[in-house]
Design goal:
This protein has 118 residues and is mostly helical. Helices cover 86% and strands 0% of the residues.
């Protein structure tokens, strides 16, 4: 009579490892699916926002043209506005990046529990 059945023990251990690997694969597929869904959703939202900005800017340009009785001044003014906005953003990029990174770190600290609590 054997105290330990090493063959059965190795088979059970092998089955356990295979099950854990399959579970890990399923978890990875689920997380990947969630990530793809979020990415596609945000891409669609971004596309809609960009379309709204484009058509809004175009409409504003045409309206300014009608007010000023010009065929191009409205487009120049709206283009100048976006140029100033871009230059301001470029100039303040370090502060903007720092603010985003600090907010990201706050969210990351909230989402992940401390190691001491486990």
């Amino acid at each position: 009579m054997k105290i330990f059945d090493f063959n059965r023990l190795s088979e059970t251990l092998g089955a356990y490892v295979e099950t854990r690997i399959e579970l890990l694969k399923l978890d990875m597929k689920e997380e990947l699916g969630k990530g793809i869904a979020k990415t596609l959703t945000w891409a669609f939202v971004l596309l809609c926002v960009l379309a709204a900005i484009f058509f809004g800017s175009f409409g504003l340009s045409v309206w300014i043209n009608q007010l000023l009785e010009s065929s191009y001044t409205g487009f120049l003014l709206v283009g100048a506005f976006y140029t100033v906005l871009a230059l301001t953003t470029y100039t303040l990029r370090a502060k903007i990046e720092h603010r985003f990174l600090s907010k990201f770190k706050e969210v990351e600290e909230i989402d992940s529990p401390d190691e001491n609590e486990q």
